Amino acid sequence: MYELPKDRTKAQPNVFNAKCPARCLLTFLAGKWHLLVIDALAKERWRNGELMRKIEGISQKMLTQTLRELENMNLVLRIDMGTVPPHVEYELTPLGQDLRMKICTLDRWIEDNMFELIRDNDSVPLDYV
Amino acid sequence: MYELPKDRTKAQPNVFNAKCPARCLLTFLAGKWHLLVIDALAKERWRNGELMRKIEGISQKMLTQTLRELENMNLVLRIDMGTVPPHVEYELTPLGQDLRMKICTLDRWIEDNMFELIRDNDSVPLDYV
DNA sequence: CCGTATCCTACCAGATACTG
DNA sequence: CAGTATCTGGTAGGATACGG
């Protein structure tokens, strides 16, 4: 359990500082699946299986792992109905919703500017369309 | 050289689609260094060495590689002064500036909410402060 | 100063099989 | 249905040395 520094005013969060937790968090969140999972949970709760289908290409293993990590960061809430067979839902916490808005902005921008970004660029696989 | 599809209205960019270029671009941009390099170039041009010092922990190899990739995406402009010894500057294109705003919003949010995110979390190295 | 060329390793994450 | 456990390879990226 992490104990916050006594004097937080001394702490200057800075993603450019290699040792700063903010940097670690950025690197972490900018992993392969975190952004997508948060985006997927934007509007409503989803069950494990629903998320699997929504986020094409993610494996059960990575989905679970990512959700656990987001849980640890107070971004996602895991709701276990306690039934048999199991029924589990995931939803964003208020903190997660706050972050989600930033991420969605980024995701939508990438979608909107997709063609600008791949112009003159053959390093992105384009088997889409 | 990529040729844009004749009928773009048929293309529905979607990061959840594993084959969509938008998905590839997101995964790409959300790599370990892309977000930081774009953030670093927010306000002014920087030289190679300056970026190295600004972005703690990045290697020359990864910096060059990342800058090249951003160049290919029309996000960064490389300005070679053609002098000896070499003097090269990098700056964001208008497209890059547009994306930069989204990224900075994300980065600042992470910094601002750092302590919320690491509460109850021992999986982030905290040798900072 | 601004790179490139190699080599090499850790670990990310996919595949598969199994459980309550 | 919602997970774990184990094995495995591919590759991102670090370290190092060299070059214009």
TrEMBL record, chains A, B:
Protein keywords = DNA-binding, Transcription, Transcription regulation
UniProt signal peptide = none
Q: Which domain of life is it from?
A: Bacteria
Record domain HTH hxlR-type: where: 20-118
- UniProt cross-references to InterPro entries, sorted A to Z: HTH_HxlR, WH-like_DNA-bd_sf, WH_DNA-bd_sf
Q: Which Gene3D superfamilies match?
A: Winged helix-like DNA-binding domain superfamily/Winged helix DNA-binding domain
Query: Which PANTHER family is this protein grouped with?
Result: HTH-TYPE TRANSCRIPTIONAL REGULATOR YODB, TRANSCRIPTIONAL REGULATOR, MARR FAMILY
What protein does this entry describe? Helix-turn-helix domain-containing protein
Look up and give the organism this protein is from: Litoribacillus peritrichatus
Its lineage reads:
Bacteria, Pseudomonadati, Pseudomonadota, Gammaproteobacteria, Oceanospirillales
